[in-house]
């Protein structure tokens, strides 16, 4: 009788322990739904770039003369398409529609906050890209500029101070292009032949001047809209829902000092492998359109 009672108590005790273990496992899995996820919750990360504790000097270097892209950029795909039809030998917006190749392009770097992270991701997936560099930033970050080329990527000219050239005119264009060429020549040993206008702002006069200076103007056919500081998910959707053979994709590896581009960095972890799974190759702009990237 005593033994029976002891067994009963023991049975209840074990049952309660098992029940507690089951409940705590379920509770834990509900507490950590993001465990193992590659993309962190971007809502918890300040979206201003100031979290890095920049010095006054760094802030000065990270200002864009024409202002943050989100303030200055006015997407004008129709005007740029008409300009391309008028100047097909100077202005390029995409590669061949028969190619299973695309070109990622990054503007406004080199930026010590984002460019090295992006280079690491490109290396991980063995993808090549094109970086349109701001001359003043290349001069300030020579090591990153050299690394871009050493790792097989192409570089282009994105002016020295990033002004809005449609407001400044052709004389300003000429010295912005020349000063950037000179600094890149000094760092890399060659002058790039690819030029991208800040904010995508072009007109007929500017396109003609780009051609006179021996450059090709490189636009894009897919805008990731990452300059709006979107989430990784939004950036990925913008790219993947507009992608096509021969696409030139606009992204940013640097920005005005207030800009946070962590969404761009994170989105690449999904965009690149998803397209590679479909057999798409990531090449540089000069490879995509078969031109020499040096003068
Ligand atoms: Zn820019």
What features would you describe in this structure?
The structure is a single chain. The protein has 295 residues and is of the alpha/beta class. It has a domain at 87-289: TIM Barrel (Alpha-Beta Barrel), CATH 3.20.20.370. The chain is built from 13 helices and nine strands. It has helices at residues 2-31, 56-61, 69-72, 77-86, 115-124, 135-140, 142-150, 165-168, 170-188, 204-212, 232-240, 262-277, 285-289, and strands spanning 91-92, 101-109, 129-133, 154-157, 194-195, 216-218, 222-223, 248-252, 281-282. The longest helix has 30 residues, at 2-31. The protein is globular. The N and C termini lie far apart (100 Å). Residues 22-51 have low confidence and may be disordered. Zinc ion binds at residues 107-108, 158, 162, 198.
Give the secondary structure arrangement, pairings included:
Elements: H1 2-31, H2 56-61, H3 69-72, H4 77-86, E1 91-92, E2 101-109, H5 115-124, E3 129-133, H6 135-140, H7 142-150, E4 154-157, H8 165-168, H9 170-188, E5 194-195, H10 204-212, E6 216-218, E7 222-223, H11 232-240, E8 248-252, H12 262-277, E9 281-282, H13 285-289
Parallel strand pairs: 1-6, 2-3, 2-8, 2-9, 3-4, 5-6, 7-8
Helix pairs in contact: 5-12, 11-12
Zinc ion (ZN) binds at residues 107-108, 158, 162, 198.
